[in-house]
Structure formats: C-alpha cells, structure tokens
Amino acid sequence: MNRYALLLITSMLLVGSNVGIGKSIVAFVPVPLFALLRFVIAMAVLWPLLRATKLRRVKRDEWINLFLQALFGTFGFTLLMLNGVARTSAVAAGVITSTIPAVVALLSWLIMKERPDGRALASIALAIVGVVVINVAHVQAGADATAGTGSLAHFDYRAVPSSVWMLVLWYGLSASIFSFWLWMKGIRHVPGSLAGVFSAVLPVAAALYGIEFLGERPTLAHGIALACVVAGIGLASLKARSVPPIAS
Q1: What does pTM read for this prediction?
Q2: 159 vs 6: CA distance, rounded Å
Q3: 19 with 90: CB under 8 angstroms?
Q4: CB 174 within 8 A of CB 10
Q5: For residue 85, what are the contacts with CB-CB under 8 A and spacing of at least 6?
Q6: Rounded CA gap, 4 and 187, in Å?
Q7: CA trace torsion 203, 136, 72, 170 (10° rounding)
C-alpha cells in the first residue's frame, strides 16, 4: 500500500470518527451552535492562508458551483447529519452516511438522466436495504434521546465540560481542514476506479468510535446493514469513472 492510499484511509477514518464525535458533542451543545462553531474555527484557520490573487482566477460559473457545494454539501449536510446523529447511534449514523456514493448514483439517474449499469443498480439496492434494516431496527428499539437540540436562548455554556469544547475544536479542524486536505492530496495519485473503495472505511471508523467511546453495542441488524453498504461501495467502485465527493 502506498502513502497516498494511506492518506485516503486516514481521511475516511477522520470522517467516520467525526460521526461519533458529533454525537458526543450534541449531547451537550445545541446543533445550530455546534455547526456555527465548526465553520468559525475553520474560517479562523483558513482565512490567513487565503490569497486574493488566486481568487481572481476563479470564473463566475465556478463561483456558483462552489457556492452550491458549500450550501448543500457542507452547510446543509452538517445540519442534517448532526440532527440525525443526535437521534440515533453512531454505528447506525456511520452506515447511513456511507451510502452517499449510492445516493449520488441514484440522483444522477433521476435528475441528470445518467443511466446506471448493473453494478450501480446493485449498489443502490444494497444501500437501500442497509438503510431500511437500520431504520426498522431503530424503530423497534425505540428512539434515542435528543439532548443538545434545544433552544440557544436557554443554553448554559458553563455546563459544558471543557473536554467537550476540545472536541468541538478538534471537529472544526478535522472535518473542515484535515480530512479535506488528506483526501485531495491522496486522490490525485490514486485511480478514480479505486477511490470509492476507501469510503468503506467510514462506517467502520464510526462503529469503532461508537463501541469504544460511547459504549454502543452493535446488533445483528447493524452487521447486516454494514455488510450491505460496504458490498455496495465495492460494487460501485469496480467500474467507477469519477471521484466521489468527500462527506463532511
């Protein structure tokens, strides 16, 4: 295994563990505040590195593309993911989050009329089965607590342990900077047909964090769902023609 593959694996390890870290944080910090702090931390670090001369090279249509990616792929994804992980386990959230490549293939089929091949269809089907299994098991087990989703007006900042604030700082750096840098650095030297395989690390990392640090106990349903999703990622990657976007 070359060092660039290790960069991609490390990136997905960060993304996967951040699913569990996010659950640890939203137990104490409201989701809107947590999301805001994530972007403030990233901005504080990245702003001094910004070069105005490079901004002039960005074309108008590229600005629109960047805005849409930031709005839906970062801002919207963060709010939805954090609200979701507050209501389920880190293991389940990791499995669901890792279905992104299959969802992209499905939306490309429905919106962009890109006809999927047999492997892509099988990947979509496996992802759907995995999510259905997780949701059925979750309903039967009962919903988790939704701590951390309350009003900001009544939030007591002093009640949050210092260790949680350190997790917020780490999340802001790893989710917005480190994972992106590692992925972009490695993906330039790895064939696109193999890129999707590395996203299989995401649910494994999320599950390991949930088991080790949150005391979660994986069930047979989690195992079945994880197997379906990982198999789907493998199938989709066999004939992948483009690099899947990183989840953050």
Answers
A1: 0.83
A2: 39
A3: yes
A4: no
A5: 19, 22, 23, 26, 93
A6: 7
A7: -40
| Residue at token pair 């901004």 | 55
Tell me which residue has tokens 């701590």. 147
Domains in the chain: boundaries: 3-238
CA–CA distance, 135 with 222 (Å, rounded to integer): 10
- Residue 242 is given by DSSP the state S
Which pair of tokens denotes residue 91? 């293991």
Phi, then psi, of 240 in degrees rounded to 5:
-65, 140
End-to-end CA, the chain? 25
**What is the spatial distance between Cα 72 and Cα 4, in angstroms, rounded to a whole number?**
28
The per-residue pLDDT string of the chain (248 residues; one tens digit each, 9 = 90 and over) reads 678 889 999 999 999 999 999 999 999 999 999 999 999 999 999 999 888 788 888 888 899 999 998 999 899 999 999 999 998 899 999 988 888 877 877 888 888 887 878 887 888 888 889 888 887 776 665 555 555 555 666 788 999 999 999 999 999 999 999 999 999 999 888 776 566 778 888 999 999 999 999 999 888 988 998 899 888 887 776 654 445 555 55
Tokens 């009329």 -> residue: 113
Residue 179's nearest CA partner among 97, 239, 119, 109 is 97
Of the candidates 89, 145, 130, 139, the residue with the CA atom closest to the CA atom of residue 232: 130
Separation between Cα atoms, residue 184 and residue 217, nearest integer Å:
34
Name which of 64, 66, 79, 73 is nearest 26 in CA terms. Answer: 79
